[in-house]
Amino acid sequence: MKFVFDRVNLKALTKELVALRRDLHRYPESGWTEYRTTVRLLEELETLGVPVRFGEEIHHRVTMYGLPDEKYDRDCYQRVLQECGREDLLSKMKGGFTGCVAEIEGAHPGPVVAFRMDIDCNDVGETQDVGHFPVREGFQSLHPNLMHACGHDGHAAIGIGAIRLLLAYRDQIHGTVRIIFQPAEEGLRGAASITNSGALDGVDWIFGGHIGLKLNELGAVAASSRGFLASTKFDVTFKGRAAHAGASPEMGHNALAAASTAVLNLLAIPRHSGGSSRINIGTLHGGTGRNVIPEEAVMTLETRGLTTEINEYMSAAAERVCKSAAAMYECGYESRFMGAAGCAVCDPELVGRVIRSLKTVEGISRIEEDFDFAGGEDFTTMMSRVQSKGGKATEMVFGCPIKAPHHNGFFDFDEQVIPLAAQAVAKIVLDLCSESDAK
Amino acid sequence: MKFVFDRVNLKALTKELVALRRDLHRYPESGWTEYRTTVRLLEELETLGVPVRFGEEIHHRVTMYGLPDEKYDRDCYQRVLQECGREDLLSKMKGGFTGCVAEIEGAHPGPVVAFRMDIDCNDVGETQDVGHFPVREGFQSLHPNLMHACGHDGHAAIGIGAIRLLLAYRDQIHGTVRIIFQPAEEGLRGAASITNSGALDGVDWIFGGHIGLKLNELGAVAASSRGFLASTKFDVTFKGRAAHAGASPEMGHNALAAASTAVLNLLAIPRHSGGSSRINIGTLHGGTGRNVIPEEAVMTLETRGLTTEINEYMSAAAERVCKSAAAMYECGYESRFMGAAGCAVCDPELVGRVIRSLKTVEGISRIEEDFDFAGGEDFTTMMSRVQSKGGKATEMVFGCPIKAPHHNGFFDFDEQVIPLAAQAVAKIVLDLCSESDAK
Amino acid sequence: MKFVFDRVNLKALTKELVALRRDLHRYPESGWTEYRTTVRLLEELETLGVPVRFGEEIHHRVTMYGLPDEKYDRDCYQRVLQECGREDLLSKMKGGFTGCVAEIEGAHPGPVVAFRMDIDCNDVGETQDVGHFPVREGFQSLHPNLMHACGHDGHAAIGIGAIRLLLAYRDQIHGTVRIIFQPAEEGLRGAASITNSGALDGVDWIFGGHIGLKLNELGAVAASSRGFLASTKFDVTFKGRAAHAGASPEMGHNALAAASTAVLNLLAIPRHSGGSSRINIGTLHGGTGRNVIPEEAVMTLETRGLTTEINEYMSAAAERVCKSAAAMYECGYESRFMGAAGCAVCDPELVGRVIRSLKTVEGISRIEEDFDFAGGEDFTTMMSRVQSKGGKATEMVFGCPIKAPHHNGFFDFDEQVIPLAAQAVAKIVLDLCSESDAK
Amino acid sequence: MKFVFDRVNLKALTKELVALRRDLHRYPESGWTEYRTTVRLLEELETLGVPVRFGEEIHHRVTMYGLPDEKYDRDCYQRVLQECGREDLLSKMKGGFTGCVAEIEGAHPGPVVAFRMDIDCNDVGETQDVGHFPVREGFQSLHPNLMHACGHDGHAAIGIGAIRLLLAYRDQIHGTVRIIFQPAEEGLRGAASITNSGALDGVDWIFGGHIGLKLNELGAVAASSRGFLASTKFDVTFKGRAAHAGASPEMGHNALAAASTAVLNLLAIPRHSGGSSRINIGTLHGGTGRNVIPEEAVMTLETRGLTTEINEYMSAAAERVCKSAAAMYECGYESRFMGAAGCAVCDPELVGRVIRSLKTVEGISRIEEDFDFAGGEDFTTMMSRVQSKGGKATEMVFGCPIKAPHHNGFFDFDEQVIPLAAQAVAKIVLDLCSESDAK
């Protein structure tokens, strides 16, 4: 017989979670600038009376990869300060120390169970098309070129939803529940900082989850994932020499020509017979004026590979391509590390328990054991850390219909996944913290 | 015997012109946003009591090529409004109607003699190197990524200097002197608008001038130029389709790959046996985020040719390359015309007169007849208009040592060229408006 | 207990098969020109008294993909005619009708069991390095730029070996054994023609096999394979316009520039998230003289994909890239289909029987069930045909150490795999044609 | 009054020269393999009784740039040996020592006057179009991919024509006339070898000439040329590593990808503001088989520049591009010098005399003084040598209508230029060797 969260008004909860998600959707914040998002979560947790840590104490300064430039950070901070006051909270986050870690102490002793939700948005502009659901309902992004196009607004709402469900059953919890609201997942940047801060110390079980992906059916849930692509993120700068394009083109060292050569040859890095590989030059900005030979070009790129070796093959080749392209145009060349994630394998023991729990959740109609994630996810950093200390980890996927691919301006997901996933998360935690296990 | 402007204190004038030039250098303004520059000139002219027209009346709205985007324009306007008040003047210029046309009525009837000075800066960042003269003297650019790196600050000062010299000899002037302070020469944008407004109507003689170029010797002056490169300026936008670079790279239509392909193949357009050709992709901006297949890329480019035919060959090839590159990646493609200039030929009659005048100017040690300009200059648009109405035109070059090529962040010129060129301009005008000619 | 082919002197047989293999290695012949190879096999079969069909009767003229040009074919034919006389046999093959189909009639009625061996070489030059085994033993290729670098010389010898073993046990054979020596496997060209000729009609069981690949251990055998990459082969010709590179470069339409643009952008076709994809531009030949703008460029290319869809995605993208590159340089463009193979799935029923047989073969130490072939193989065409008529098919791999990757000039394999594979093939056939099955 | 060559039947001579030209056109021979052409010229000179030197004695082995490969040379030699016997002559030329130097001793002492005609063909296939004059008249090229597409067949005929005219007036010649039939002008290869052999020693006046170019009017003749482009010819080889394109693409070092990258970036070398520049990749051959990652690619290229400096700028940039492209794909890289020519300036003194002579030639209607050659011509090597010893030199152009650009398969010129140019050459020589000058 399926478990029902009978101590909670699920209908009312759903309404509140959807409202929360839409509010976050309206104010998307890019990695390391989730000031408003974090304030919003802190206020929710405050109301619920859940203790929470945030700011520098949950971060490791040296491994805060891919921080935005200072001016951008300052502008974001100021804007949020004006929007919501709360300098008491914000001042602790200043400089990118966003996200938070909540903790529910169960009524009885037991293991430490953690789950992680990521909260940042994408650097993508949201469509203004009237057929787009957020537009129709009036909650589309208010920030140009920023959008929750990967469902992390939903993740945050699921996290709050699970907390609310768990609080109602605290008397049955044997152990401690730690909930990590992680910043800067996009770009695989935030997990290392949280992990290295010690925020995962003592965790026995940890799981994460993502909505959508290629599991586009409500009620379908994957208990574990494989195919995490190892990934490296880096920025490359070509430094050439400007010259007047009409009067002395031969005096220039064309940084944009170097970068364009790099783009084509990066995309042309041979496929690897050992498994999936990826490369993307996400952005390129070069040149100063129409009639000036471009003296600088900057690109942001990433490589991926099914294994660490394949990813290293890709990033070594990428480095070689960029270096050679720079030399071709007598340009200087700088490469700056911006983030990375490795591969990770889900623990069968935990996966088995998750499957058993999922079978008892109302609304879950299909359980997949081994979803092909086929992408990078910096949760693997957390998984590896917990596993290295003897804990167990898995990454789930909560299926739901989506309207366009992730990271696309038309992305939209079925909000019904929020309450369903919240229940699934809560049920898994309750089962892991049940009396029998605690003994 | 050489002519001496004995009614003017040349030493004092020089000091003031240098101060004016440095002030303009400190506040460089890009094409169509020369609000402060224009205010500064208007105030000078006001003080001198010279009648001046400005704002919409000297522009032709439809041919104001390559206007900046509205937000940028508004921001510039607001900043200048705060800096210098003078809403009385600024409100007339709002929307890019910068520049001005002054007119000195001589004491006697005679021809209309015009000269033109351009006043805009470059989209180039100025070096902070302590060896750079403007840095050492503390007048370097206060605006990031903007710099007077082509000497138009000097041109403006020369214009004011010539006016001051001419005013002292107004009693000897037979005719009218019209001085055009033109905006947006960079990008070959501003001349068409001024010309089409009718501001050149009635002009009998017109000349322009540029400092530096490859004539790097103080005292050397070219009375005429050849080798103007015809030029076309346009912006190209590639519109692709975003997709997650890890999860579904095959779903993307990579606008940046299209643009990079275009860059290389644009530079590879075959040289033309008929004479010089040029192409430059001055800027390229593409992509939204590191892990998103770029959905848009925008480039600003220009072609040049020794003849109109060669320039048309280049721009037709460029169009074909961009179109094909877009098709290769299933991207949409838009091309937007941003400015142009043709070729023009200096009139021997006027050149002869200029040479005769130059020979009488103290400090001019060498006169070139036929300088190879080897670049684009939208003054050719004014030349062609005046010539089509029966007037005569020439473009001069005032030699001086320069520290780095034009449009380079280290550009700097010998300020002694300012008083010298001002005297040359004034002397040419005085000779063209002398009693004997007026008859 | 392991089966021993006690009616045959295995030591002597091994010696003869190795000699045959080395003879074939010395005279490698490219697809559709295996004149000497076929004559050699026909003579062996004649000696053994095995009936054999060859020439036009085993081919389907319309689907003889990727035939060489007529002159090359004629030259090969003439050379072989001079080398070995046998016009009686050769005249039937003239025009590329190479390969042969042998048939052993068992003593008793039963099913038709077929196996296929490919016999063509690669367009690769063999190393002259003294450390290279064929060089040391004096049987390296006598034909420049041709080499058995994929082990098909071994395949042919295995086929003859299996026939000799089977002939010794003909009294125990219930059914018919059909052996297909197929030409032109490289380029995935020959299988279609043989298949469409009807040569597979009536086959109940069919299997093929390849030596080496990534199974580099003698005694390891794979009973079935997956991961066949669907593939399309085509040639692309760019037709431009020649011009004098010094006197009028602008008059040329540079076919080589178009081809080079195509090369880079073909390699840059995005990876597919659905599984492996491949693209290779194997050869490019362009231009006529150093100072002439190249007027023609020809490339041979191939795409591959884990599924037919992925391969079609690749070949459609390739077509688009080439077409756009041609348009970019005002070149004409022609694409010519040269061969293809689809995907295929091995039949579990046959695979199970193969595994049982392999377990009884002396020298086989490890059996893999599901080898990742990760390449194209036109045997899939035969598999699909037999399966479509209700028969069963599988593709095996006979492991052995190799000295360099397949298709490399240093390729060499351990000849001990020949007798071992011959026994494996014979034992599988004997078991499929055993009394119990025939009933 | 115009001079008439009244001692010669011009109509008959024209007929014979045209026949000679058509014979040479039918058997075009590429640089350093002009065996038949040289035999043909030697036979003509033998008949005329003109002493001639040829073979090793007129060459300088070390500077015989860009020799063909030995096999090709041997094949050409053998073919000609079969065609025309004359081993007595051919054996002296074996190994590329083609061309010859004839000498007419005048009746009186005087200066040494030399003129040079080049005799090699282009690596271009001749059209088979029935509208093409050589096809219509049945004298099109019998050698595939070889064609006299630059008029050197005409040059050779003009040389013989001039000799025949001069012989008729030997009694009036004060001095010596040296006629150089130079091989391998295409690729700028042959002049250095002839020059360094000492064949020009003692020359007081030297001139060369070309038919056609952009002077497409019969009767127009240029007495001197400017705008010779300095040029460097070299071959580049990229050495990569082969691998199976399906099984292990990541193992390959793709030489063809490196070469394609080089092609685009070579064409993209910035134009030079100092004057004309050129670059051409005339041929590219890469790869061995469709499914093999290309392990080698070879390109033949050339750079040109209006000045030696510009040419050096181009070739240095080319070297850098190729080297970087090789590094990008982990390929080895070799560059081999194949030929070169510098710039040269015609001597006004000689030009003046040529003009005076031309004015007296019947049929010459227009004389240009300063033709823009806009191309490379290795005659500049001879000019520089003669000038360095105090002699005078010029390069002429004999105008005539052409049907297609030089080096194009449809190239054809008006044969009437042959007798006209022969007379012009003869008249110039006669005037330079006239009694008055000899004193």
UniProtKB/TrEMBL annotation, chains A, B, C, D:
Q: Which residues form a coiled coil?
A: none
InterPro entries per the UniProt record, alphabetical: Amidohydrolase (IPR017439), Bact_exopeptidase_dim_dom (IPR036264), Peptidase_M20 (IPR002933), Peptidase_M20/M20A_hydrolases (IPR052030), Peptidase_M20_dimer (IPR011650)
Q: What Pfam families does the entry give? A: M20_dimer, Peptidase_M20
Q: Which residues form the Peptidase M20 dimerisation domain?
A: 233-326
Domain of life where this protein originates: Bacteria
Name of the molecule in the record:
Amidohydrolase
The taxonomic lineage of its organism, from the top, reads: Bacteria, Bacillati, Bacillota, Clostridia, Eubacteriales
